[in-house]
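PT: before anyone asks, these are the final sequences, not the draft ones from last week. 711 residues across everything. Please model them as a single complex and drop the result in this thread when it's through.
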Amino acid sequence: MSTIEKDASASSELLALLREQEDELSELKERLSRWEQSCADAPEREILFSTVSGREIKPLYTLLDRTASQYQDALGLPGEYPFTRGPYSTMYRTRLWTMRQFAGFGTAEETNERYKYLLRQGQTGLSVAFDFPTLMGFDSDHPRSLGEVGVCGVAISSLHDMERLFDGIPLDEVSVSMTINGPAIILFCFYVVAAEKQGISPGVLRGTVQNDILKEYQAQHAWIFPPEPALRCIIDMFEWCSENAPKYNPISISGYHIREAGATAAQELAFTLRNGFEYVERAIARGLDVDSFSPRLSFFFDVHNDFFEEIAKFRAARRIWSRVMREKYRAKNPESWRLRTHAQTAGVTLTAQQPENNIVRVAYQAMAAALGGTQSLHTNSMDETLALPTEKSVRTALRTQQVLAFESGVTNTIDPLAGSYFLEALTDELERDALAIFDEIDCFGGVVPAIEEGWFQREIAMSAMLQQREVEAGDRVVVGVNHFTEGSEEVEIETLHIDSGIEESQVAQMVELRARRDPEAVERTLRELRESSRTGGNLVPRILECARAYCTLYEIRRAMEDVFDSYKEPVFF
Amino acid sequence: MQGIDRKIRVLVAKPGLDGHDRGAKVIASALRDAGFEVIYTGLHQTPEMIVNAAVQEDVHIVAMSILSGAHMTLFPKVRELLDGAGANHILLTGGGIIPVEDIEDLESRGIGRLFGPGTPTTEIIDYIQDWFGGQETS
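LR: through. Structure below.
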């Protein structure tokens, strides 16, 4: 056969194949419409068949719902562009997700003990919860801290507290995640110097600082400075870490708080990714090479109740991120395309009524996170609507992850639900929704103007209100709350009580610290920080100096605030 | 609904450093939809700021949302300041993540009913209307 004849025969074969597929699809269409008619005899139950985010779900998905054009384009292989099937090629067969329970309360010593307990229980990473004064940049002895010291997390007002928090915990071996945003740059510097005191250089530190200020303005509300100087601090950290702490994640771009504040799955996905792109654009504008910082950008998503929608959300997030990083921001390093994420089960789904039921909710949510391909996971404890969790309930939450990882079999193969007509259709739908929301944000001229207009805040509050109405109308079943309520009145579980002496002991520590340190070094380093805040230049080295001189959190905050001013929230409901 | 000559005025307040305002906003919207006049303070308010707003706005009720664990400090403090400002007629109520024993303790110390997660907004509206009705007739 000549080449031409060969080509002709190949294309006629292809044509025949296409015709065959077309016939198959039209036959399927016919059968489907007959099937739909036959279903009319069995009326559906009178409940909502939409997701908790209000997404309508059809009774059946088939081959006809596959919209993404080609398998290779939309899915690829795990660890390969566009990463829909997972950020790593071998996923949990090589390395399980990190089981990382968020913890912190009371003094640094008490939290240090809880960390050592969790590490003995087989937990593989630490996650620091700070108290509200720390989150807002106030020292334990500041008047605004009254009643809140050590209550909701651990109180860290200086390097001295940070040193005690990690006493006897080798920071070169344990990866530590810190949930701190407004004053993130300050707490990060305390951490780096605490490691330095253990003889550990920043180059070997593994861990993450949340440091995502945009979602603070949108949802979580622990801010200090206005957006522009706050963003400057974040890009300073990207720059400093890429040069000095290459294994450390200087940000965890977080959808968790956006979702918990009321957003739908699609809003969580879109707002989070768009915030991520905002940071990328700011860093590029600073003159950083996109591939110098992007590999260390990490994410944090919620895992809510709707099992399939949540799995689809993780897959869509990876696909969108990689495509935009490659196509729009021209990242060349595949590491820059790879979205790695932490996940936490949805605190907002826990009920105060029949709290034991929460163990079951958490288990389903945790399974969705694993099937979505998360890199680390926090599982909530059953008693968290009542108080901070007890040691026992935290252990059950950790055991839930261990049962999932070692008994359920979901880790045996990678992305096991891929190819499901339903899941792939949902993944495509979420992607389309997110892209449409990106366009809305662009109409404002970007994330910061939309924040200043209160757009994100209103969108989130509106979604929260709609969800509340569904629950109150009884349309959305919440077991133990609006249906199946027998037994909801008696809550008989032990809750954790925080010792009320924390405030005094923490205040006494502060007094002692202020007396012991070198006042000249304090004064000098704060003056230099104020100067750099005014003139520009990377603030990390300046704040490291302040930390070494044992300047307190509030002193450092004030020095910056003198130059940066503070954020004023637009109030509405 | 009562025959209302004047509307029930409620100040929804977020005291302390806690930024969790989903509940406060949902409650504020639900109370407004129920026909109350609602003022929302915004976040990060000190007890003094809340009491000043309550007195200035001449509200009947202050509803505080606290999810930070600081309820044992903040509820008594606001009650004390309200009383000190001659506003002991104002009902102080609220909700959040508050252990049952603490709710009982606070309710025995002159704080109104406190509501936990999952409370239907209708229950809160009924409570406020009943309280207000009792005030009018007494």
